[in-house]
Amino acid sequence: MQGFDSDILDSLRQMSPDRFHKLLQAFLDGSDEYLENMKSSINPVNMELINISAHSLKSSSAALGFIALSENCQILEDISFNEDKMDEVSKYISIISEIYVDVRAFLVSELSKGYSVSN
């Protein structure tokens, strides 16, 4: 996967399998919510919620090694303070959504290795 630092996730695999899978599931659950918040905040515009969601997703993505996702969330976070950049905000929400499809599929695959997954 492009924009992914596998060393970070590999180091997290050193924790117990149960804790590792709970961490991945928590990331998915939170990320799904952050992404939905971003999308639903376009109309009507809620830049504060976009900013908070981008910040949260940026941090958790970086912690798991999803660098491309984190970097695009950083850009969205930076521009979300300016309502004049709504076109760019919408563009980055779309980019983040596309990247997240791959991240989510990867993590669902990881979780399916002997554990149940919520979709």
State the name of the first-level CATH class. Answer: Mainly Alpha
Strand content: under 5%
Average pLDDT rating: 91
Oligomer: single chain
- Count of discrete structural domains: 1
Question: What would you say this structure looks like, in words?
Answer:
The protein is mainly alpha-helical and 119 residues long. The protein has one domain: HPT domain (Four Helix Bundle (Hemerythrin (Met), subunit A), Up-down Bundle). Helix content is 74%, strand content 0%. It contains five helices and no strands. It has helices spanning 6-12, 17-40, 47-64, 67-79, 86-111.
Q: Can you give keywords for this protein?
A:
elongated, Four Helix Bundle (Hemerythrin (Met), subunit A), 119 residues, disordered C terminus, mainly alpha
Task: List the topology elements.
Layout (H helix, E strand, L loop, with lengths): L5 H7 L4 H24 L6 H18 L2 H13 L6 H26 L8
Helix pairs in contact: 2-3, 2-5, 3-4, 4-5
Describe the structure concisely for a colleague.
By secondary structure, the chain is mostly helical. It has helices at residues 6-12, 17-40, 47-64, 67-79, 86-111.
